[in-house]
Amino acid sequence: xxxxxxxxxxxxxxxxxxxxxxxxxxxxxxxxxxxxxxxxxxxxxxxxxxxxxxxxxxxxxxxxxxxxxxxxxxxxxxxxxxxxxxxxxxxxxxxxxxxxxxxxxxxxxxxxxxxxxxxxxxxxxxxxxxxxxxxxxxxxxxxxxxxxxxxxxxxxxxxxxxxxxxxxxxxxxxxxxxxxxxxxxxxxxxxxxxxxxxxxxxxxxxxxxxxxxxxxxxxxxxxxxxxxxxxxxxxxxxxxxxxxxxxxxxxxxxxxxxxxxxxxxxxxxxxxxxxxxxxx
Length: 280
Hints:
Layout: E1 13-17, H1 22-33, E2 37-42, H2 45-57, E3 64-69, H3 75-89, E4 94-97, H4 112-139, E5 143-148, H5 161-181, E6 186-193, H6 209-216, H7 227-238, E7 249-252, H8 261-279
Parallel strand pairs: 1-2, 1-4, 2-3, 4-5, 5-6, 6-7
């Protein structure tokens, strides 16, 4: 087994919210692989404990993960999560605000309770995470806060007014906190993923060549993303390699948002035509 004391996050302590699955799980594992000690928080206890067990089975010496149940919709639980990490590991260097809650709908159709809950999960909770975590980072000489936004924070999709609004607000929250906490050597950055495929989703459509082919047409790299793609970006932002990077929204989307819509439409039309020729 490798020695985590020589990894890119050696000696650092991190919290990853929503860490039981998907991007959160991938990020927690990648941090541990690079020497960090990580508190994985989630409301899914069974999945969270299984994730931590799997990570610890491959953890290098000096690194590892612990699970804590915490609901980001409860401010007191966010505060307790941060306090537990500091009590457990003696310091806090990295916070990844990844957990979220969402409900679909337009401004006309979405219920007010759902709207408020989505904003609380995706905007207020990351703010509170920083509120409680940053003082500990400052006490330790600095740190890194990473918020998981989305390409939906840059470009809007239909029937998702709560998600689009919150993910957009999260980018500005990131920039505001970067300005506020920069003098204390606390860097704050966002990641904007494209579509990320993981086990918690229904991925049966990926076995269909037509559905999968259409999705691939959305990306110049001709594939969708994996949790590891985002985890590697988070690792960079959390590491000392990014010590002069703050207030940035790192887009990791396989090129989806850099293309003109008319050329994308032409590619899709060409794909459909060729698919029909070869599949009937």
